[in-house]
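Moderator note: this is an archived Q&A kept for reference. The question asked for a predicted structure of one protein chain; the sequence and the answer are reproduced below.
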Amino acid sequence: MTNKESGSNKPKISGKVKSKTFQITLLLSKMAVVYTLLVLFLAVFVAGFILLVMGAINFDFSNSEIPPGVNQPVKLRIIHIILISRAVVGKILENIGICSQVSFVRYIQRRKTLGVDPKLFIKDLWFEKVPVRIYQPKVPPASQRRGVMFFHGGGWVFGSLETHEKLCRSIARESESVVVSVGYRLAPEHKYPAAYEDCLNATVHFMKNIELYGVDPANVIVCGDSAGGNLAAAVSQTLAGRSGLPKLRAQILIYPGLQALDFNLPSYQQNRGVPLLFRERAAFYMLQYLNGNASNLEEVLEGSHIPIDIKLNYRKWVSPDNIPEKFKVRGYKPHVLLDCTTEVYETVKRFCEPNLCPLLAEDALIQQLPETFMLTCEYDVLRDDGLLYKKRLEDNGVRVTWYHLEDGFHGIINSFNNDWLSFSSGKRGLDNIMNFLKSL
């Protein structure tokens, strides 16, 4: 190669080097921009998370009240703060048009999945048009097993087969029972009586096909917590007056909500701000179940939604006078009866139906009900619903086994095995439920 040719190539090589350098510089610049954006996004996310938690903590301390007698109050606050944070995220997503708050909370709840249980056969089926999950012990039975129809809680709005999976597995394992968990339709999309009808139809289907599951037709129990306790009581009443089917052996009612006439009973006043169920939310959920909305919430809370003559008619069953005096000591003031307008009553008059509010059933029906286990919690707005129903059952000759958690709160049973957020009271309550089941 001549010197002339060699010199002529130098500019070309130099140009290639400059081009390569420029490309590398451009790539590094782009990477720096992406890195900066990622850092900014992470910073915004962390800041948002901190603000969310701080806001939830502030809401919890500002709006809730945990009495000194509550078992493990710090754990309860943590659970409440987690639930508040979840609800806030759902509301944000609803406001920006991604999904509704209710849909988000349900989605999070349904992500709780458990693995295979070595002691149980677990299968998802449909009873008519109702989804159910059946838990059957693998141990060969010495005779026919007892059957438990389980209706989950969640205010008729939340809850699912997944939210009560641990509880249903535990019941099936420990009591060696066949447990059928019912995935009934939820409000506000499906208003009353959808949930009640699903639970009733699933129970009837099970009883008509009971030989397929190795269950003793004379030993079927309905069971539910909170709203599920309401549904269990309603199904039990319906089946008590129905011929052509075996009689239920028992009903297990775990802090049930049983009436909507009076949200100013002692427990509603005393525990109005105690997690995990505020007085206002109890009324809110009942209205969602009834009408699919919370209109007339204020009237329901103050008691101006039912005419005085109807209240007086039911006062023999729904009255603070029927609650033992020891439960009125803590912060209770008698409530003045208020009348209501025709317009308001028309929107909530079905509160007087026993299928919605089982506490209002007639004595002739109450007398036919099966043996009952009733669990109540001292720091629960629904405590007095349980106490009033217990009295009605006992007054009508129904055998009642009552267990009261002096340090318990609403929802505690479902946290019996919640890792480091477990409550010893929840386990104690569940043990008593198991003992009752095993005695049947």
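Archived answer notes: The beta strands are 120-127, 130-137, 145-151, 178-182, 215-225, 250-254, 371-379, 400-409.
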